[in-house]
Amino acid sequence: MNGSFDFDWQAALDSIPYLLAGVPYTLLIAFGGLAFGFVLGMIFGLLRLSPTAWLRWPAIAYIEIFRGTPVLVQVLFIFYGLPQLLGGPIDAITAGIAAIAVNSGAYISEIVRGGVQSIERGQREAGLSLGLSRAQTFRYIIWPQGFRRMIPALGNQGIISIKDTSLFAVIGVGELVRQGQIYIATTFRALEVYLMVAVLYLAITLTLSLALRMLERRGLVGQ
Amino acid sequence: MSERKIDDTAAPIVRMEKLNKNFGALHVLKDVDLSVAPGEVVVIIGASGSGKSTLIRCINGLEEFQSGRLEVDGKMLEPHGKASQTLQQIRTEVGMVFQQFNLFPHLSVLDNITLAPRKVRSASREDARETAKRLLDRVGIADQADKFPSQLSGGQQQRVALARALAMEPRLMLFDEPTSALDPEMIGEVLDAMRELAREGMTMVIVTHEMSFAREVADRVIYIHEGEIVEQGRPADVFDNPRRERTQSFLSRVLSH
């Protein structure tokens, strides 16, 4: 030891209750955003597959725009930019959820497209040849199989979006990172506190990973 | 098969006139005329790429055609795949068995068979299950009802696919090389089930490479070459006395081994 380094375990432990207060916001923004993102992903992913150009084209535009710009820029635009258009402020949590929604929605669109496209053509032909409508064929045959194949990629996107919420400290949402910053401002224990912040993110993402792996092991995923 | 009933006086189930089909610049079907009477078993033979699969896939609209007339079960199919409502009605009455079985891997055998009757014919769950079990019994795999397709052999899967199509009580059955993806020892069990179906009077259009099966079961054999019907007639005539040179050379190639 060169003497200048001392890791203050007490400070690390003391920060935990304070940091934990940020976890609900992290989870709310991540999973709230992902829920809307999944809806957007289904809509635009399916539009992206449409043979009709005027349906496909808006989906391509949506995907390219929100996949091609940083989620930080998106949330700044929503939080600071949109109020100028709407004429009223947007709550920071709402802005965070909206940013995760549109951003993850773009990626999920591509996951949905890939999952649906991965189903062999013969499945559709078998459904149609039995007299099922195109919508019934999709609902009972293509989607259930495609969805199983999407789950690993959806899990991956979930983990990415959870981590993306850390950027929303900049708009003042009291999520994990923001709570850490505030705590550091009074204690000056950056090393200890950021380590604890990292540990809490890891706890959240590992839980999600484990849940997914259990789904896979039970054979509910893949094929 | 002489006691089989073909109703020549009734309106044909399939009436195809001057049907033309292109894949881009490739002219796959050329002025094909084909009429299938109720109760008739038609076997289509020909080299791979001759257009025989495309031909039967036109009958239930899985392939669209560019010109010609096509009437199936009294309903007109339009060129370029128009009129999807009619198409769905036709498909309800026309069953199809595919080379690759195309069972639904996420559904049990029973659910594979009951799905369409329940969703299209609005059959009750109980009725659909009863019908499914009866059909499974008929194709000799009553004990497999609760398994998933991946747990079955190829021959069993294809018999499930047959039961699935029959559950809709079709007026016409199409078979697209039903035994080509099977291991040799499983071909017999599928052909037996088809033989049984023919004996019961089902109208069938079969694309196959099984020449001895064709000879035995077919009322009419059609030889197709490069998208054209070159020769057709009773199996004995086509197989033993082919009149056209192309038919002769095709048969000498496939029957020699």
UniProtKB/TrEMBL annotation, chain A:
Family matches, as SUPFAM superfamilies: MetI-like
Keyword Transferase assigned: no
Keyword Cell membrane: yes
Superkingdom of source: Bacteria
Positions of the ABC transmembrane type-1 domain: 23-212
Keywords of this entry: Amino-acid transport, Cell membrane, Membrane, Transmembrane, Transmembrane helix, Transport
Primary site of residence: membrane
Membrane topology classification: Multi-pass membrane protein
CDD domains: TM_PBP2 (cd06261)
Family annotation (NCBIfam families): HEQRo_perm_3TM
Family according to the record: Belongs to the binding-protein-dependent transport system permease family. HisMQ subfamily.
Biological function: Part of the binding-protein-dependent transport system for glutamine; probably responsible for the translocation of the substrate across the membrane.
Name recorded for this polypeptide: Putative glutamine transport system permease protein GlnP
Naturally occurring in which organism (per UniProt): Palleronia marisminoris
Phylogenetic placement of the source organism: Bacteria, Pseudomonadati, Pseudomonadota, Alphaproteobacteria, Rhodobacterales
UniProtKB/TrEMBL annotation, chain B:
Annotated membrane topology: Peripheral membrane protein
Coiled coil: none
InterPro entries, sorted: AAA+_ATPase (IPR003593), ABC_ATPase_HisP-typ (IPR030679), ABC_transporter-like_ATP-bd (IPR003439), ABC_transporter-like_CS (IPR017871), MetN_ABC_transporter-like (IPR050086), P-loop_NTPase (IPR027417)
PROSITE patterns: ABC_TRANSPORTER_1, ABC_TRANSPORTER_2
Any Pfam family matching the protein: ABC_tran
Subcellular location: Cell membrane
GO molecular function: ABC-type amino acid transporter activity; ATP binding; ATP hydrolysis activity
Name this polypeptide is given: Glutamine transport ATP-binding protein GlnQ
The organism of origin for this protein: Palleronia marisminoris
